[in-house]
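Researcher: Please predict.
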Amino acid sequence: MSQKALLYIKLVLVTMFWGGTFLTGQITSKAISPVLGAFGRFAVASIYFIFMLTIREGKWPRPNRKQWGLIISAAATGIVAYNVFFFSGLKLIETSRASLIIALNPVGIMWLASILGIERLNRRRVIGIIVALFGVGVVLTRGELAEIQANVGTGELFILGCVISWSLFTLIGRKLMEGLSPLTINTYASIIGSIALLIPAANQMPALISAGWPVWLSIVYLGVFGTGLGFVWYYDGVRDIGPTRTGIFINLVPAWAIILGALFLQEQILPATLLGGMLIITGVTITNLARQRENGSQ
């Protein structure tokens, strides 16, 4: 088997790992608090990242004062806020709906970047954003757009909080990657995020100990496969075939989440969910292609 074929297999597995985080997140969120679930995930992920940083880079880079400020901001948004929103949302809504809302991440990043003056919105990007947002509306309202206020609840708002948190984390990470490797950034952010989460989670540890093996395995899965290994393999793809081609694989994540939710949690797949999902993926693809074309013309 060629190295490129092996890489593609690894990227498909990454999307399956990330799709599986919605299933294991659902299991975890039903048994323990969002803060405790987030701490468990990143305590495990931190151990993995420390090991990989030591093996791959040999030494730990020393960030300067400005970089430390950005790393703390990355931990606050991408580790603490994102995961508290993630587990809180999964406690209330199905994995399929959550995964399709989070599929809006690339659009959220682009929109926020345009607001902050980091990127420009051209016509293709605007069309992609509109299509993706319409798809999210279909998912949120189960196809009844006129009843959006009645159909959007706290769980959906938590998952939308994930999109905002991840968009901020990504833009902070872009700035940090001007001087630090992605593995270094995520190692430090995971450690800081874990310490921050430990403060409110400390008095809840008995609940984690008594949660039972399905929750423990879910947390290990979230930390190792959904965070550590998934991240390392994804950035192997970015390094070897570029960010645009690697990013296309992310469109598979909601599909895996919907399939796994139906198989293991007996979640019903509604026609509106499928339609909305297709619109979201179409919109995200349009925006990604617009970025690729713009970058190619520069």
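Model: The chain has a mean pLDDT of 87.
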